Amino acid sequence: MAGTIAAKLAELGITLPQPAAPVANYIGYNIVGNQVIVSGQIPFVEGKIAVTGKLGAGVSIEDGQRAARICFVNLLAQVKAAAGGDLDRVKRVVRLGGFVACTPDFTQQPQVINGASDLAVAVFGEKGKHARAAVGCPSLPGDAAVEVEGMFELA
């Protein structure tokens, strides 16, 4: 049924933004065969980074999860563009890579990136279950707290 994913997004109260334009020498996504590889997305909302700073130094796990969720919404905007506007073409969320700006002693990166993973499953159901990495790093572009990249399979 066409529009199933669009209906699910509406049910979740999610409106996809325009795909973010690259800020350096790269493209937002690349299509290789039936795979869409999406460049890392930061938690942009209306042109501004919604969650900045470091986990373990003032940014809560809940705010980190919110940032990861926003990153996944931005990933979906890129995938929608790659799929010709039809997210029902997504056969599977293959992999997510999550980067968490954090202090050296912060160890809860997986819980933070669950913000993106949980939304993937909420949107796509079983097709949203994916392989994943969640790593800490000293900083991210624009002082973003989280960045998430992804790989999706299209029909």
From TrEMBL:
This is Endoribonuclease L-PSP/chorismate mutase-like domain-containing protein. It comes from Falsiroseomonas bella. CDD domains: YjgF_YER057c_UK114_like_1. Gene3D superfamilies: RutC-like. Residues 8-144 form the Endoribonuclease L-PSP/chorismate mutase-like domain. InterPro entries: Endoribo_LPSP/chorism_mut-like, RutC-like_sf.
